[in-house]
Amino acid sequence: MAKNKNTSFDPADKPVKFGFIWTILFTVLSLFFIFPIFEVVINSFKTTSNIGGANTFVLPTKDSFAGLANYVQGIADTNFWSAFGNTVLITVLSVAAIILCTSMCGWYIARVDSKGAKIVYALFAFSMVIPFQMVMYTLAYVAQNLNLTNPIGLVPVYLGFGAGLATFMFVGFAKSIPLEIEEAAMIDGCGALGIFFRIVVPIMKPTYITVAILEAMWIWNDYLLPYLVLDSNYKTVPIAIQFLQTSHGQVEWGPMMAIIILAIIPIIVFYMLAQKYIIGGVVAGAVKG
Question: Bridge-partner residues for 65, per DSSP?
Answer without folding.
Answer: 46
